[in-house]
Amino acid sequence: MSRRRAVVSWSSGKDAAWALHLARQRGEVEVAGLLCSINARFQRVSMHGVRRALLQQQAQAAGMPLMTVELPWPCSNEEYERRMGAACARLRAQGVEVIVFGDIFLEDVRQYRERQLAGTGLEPLFPLWGSDTGALVREMLDAGVRARIACLDPARVDRSLAGAELTEAVVRWLPANVDPCGENGEFHTFVFDAPVFAHPLDVAAGEVVERDGFVYADLVAGGAAGRRCYNDG
């Protein structure tokens, strides 16, 4: 019996990478590509603020086609849903039946995704759902997932962590009211190595800016300048 074709909803972060890993490992679906929304004006990943060029490097390292949904800026929720609906129709025309998401416990987010996919012929799959986030982030790190904090909420996470690598030491340093995976939006990551990659990406932390209430690290390809890693020492 052939497996259903799927794409991964790709944010560029660690949870999406781990969802791809689990989907491949469990073998329930055949992952055929990565689906990502892009701010067309700035050519960056929506919310995470990661450059398109780095996103393309991730797709190449994962050996996956990259499928992007171009969003205007600013973008209303109605326009977002219209464009995502059109993307879903294209996926179905290509034989895709499943979208894999990296959500862990936010019920409202899951219900929204399920509502939006209802009637499209696409089924949502949540391989990380219900995991203990403290154990989950350590499982990722132990398996070789490496990621930098691309964006954070300075009201909840110290702004000095923007651009830093998410390590065991950083996880321990996070305040008790911050989810270890950043599931409540405390921070977002860019994964530069993972079991799903054929090779690690060479990524450094560049300029740090604050915009619209969030702090962003402009991640750039190559070079050691500006690299930051918080280790046990």
Description of the structure:
This protein has 233 residues and is an alpha/beta fold. The protein folds into two domains: 4-125, 3-Layer(aba) Sandwich (Rossmann fold), CATH 3.40.50; 145-221, no CATH class. Helix content is 29%, strand content 27%. The protein has helices at 14-26, 52-62, 77-93, 107-117, 133-142, 168-173; strands at residues 4-9, 29-39, 44-45, 66-71, 96-100, 123-125, 146-152, 187-193, 203-211, 214-221. The strands form two sheets. Strands 1, 2, 3, 4, 5 and 6 form a six-stranded mixed sheet that branches. Strands 8-7-10-9 form a four-stranded antiparallel sheet, with helices on one face. Strand 1, helix 1 and strand 2 form a beta-alpha-beta unit.
In a few lines, what is going on in this structure?
The chain has 233 residues and is of the alpha/beta class.
Task: Give the helices and strands, then pairings.
Layout: E1 4-9, H1 14-26, E2 29-39, E3 44-45, H2 52-62, E4 66-71, H3 77-93, E5 96-100, H4 107-117, E6 123-125, H5 133-142, E7 146-152, H6 168-173, E8 187-193, E9 203-211, E10 214-221
Parallel strand pairs: 1-2, 1-5, 2-4, 5-6
Antiparallel strand pairs: 2-3, 7-8, 7-10, 9-10
Please tag this protein with its features:
alpha/beta; six-stranded mixed sheet; 6 helices
Cα end-to-end separation: 52 Å
Per DSSP, what share of the residues sits in E-state strands of 2 or more residues?
25-35%
Q: What is the arithmetic mean of pLDDT?
A: 94
Query: What's the number of structural domains?
Result: 2
SS content category: alpha/beta
Helix content: 25-40%
Task: Provide a count of the helices.
Answer: 6
Please provide the ordered H/E string of secondary-structure elements: EHEEHEHEHEHEHEEE
Say what the CATH topology of the largest domain is.
Rossmann fold
Q: Tell me how many strands there are.
A: 10
Q: What is the architecture of the largest domain at the second tier of CATH?
A: 3-Layer(aba) Sandwich
